[in-house]
Amino acid sequence: MCENLIQTIEINQKKSGFTVLDVPANKFINELAAFFKEKNIIKVPKYAPLVKSSRANDCEPINPDYIFYKAAAIARKLYVTKSKNIGVGSLRVMFSKKERRGSQPPKTFRAGGKIIRDLVIQLKNAKYIENYGGKEDETNSGLFLTKSGRSQLDKIASGLMKK
Q: What is the pLDDT of residues 1-15, one digit of tens each?
């Protein structure tokens, strides 16, 4: 019965490629992080081994390449969320974490801003993201993926789907 149902569903045969939305998030972020590391697009800051990524964390991340994964997650988040108001503050909230406080109820704390700010600057220098709007348009002043950044992310996603 399921096979008959699957055969009746129309599939878009004219679709030329795959996008980031077609790929599972964890596979895409791993592949994009490897791409950033291989092409030297993201450089690891000097403070990276010492700093916690959130106030809610007990210690620094175990993986020494967490910077590449965070940059890949930021790029994917900007691709998926098509809002024009996403900035560093919004990204801090998106990557927030709950802190366990013993017998008290858990409390949510935002992610560290310095790491996100540095990664956004590096992605801007690599021409992957840009600022949306300017000083005259204060209501919509956020970050968005450039055309070249969006196409590069789609290329990586289509490469993953072909594997």
A: 556 655 665 554 555
In degrees, to the nearest 5, what angle opens at C-alpha 46 toward C-alphas 44 and 52?
85
6 inside domain: no
Instruction: Give the pLDDT confidence of 128-139 residue by residue, as tens digits.
Output: 999 877 555 556
Task: Supply angle C-alpha 55, 86, 92, rounded to 5.
Answer: 5
Structural contact between residues 91 and 117, judged by C-beta atoms closer than 8 angstroms: no
| Cα torsion 131, 126, 122, 86: sign | positive
Distance between alpha carbon 110 and the CA centroid of its chain, in Å? 16
pTM of the shown model: 0.83
Total domains, the chain? 1
Which domain does 120 fall in, by range?
Answer: 21-162
Q: What is the pLDDT of residue 13?
A: 54
Three-state secondary-structure class, residue 102: coil
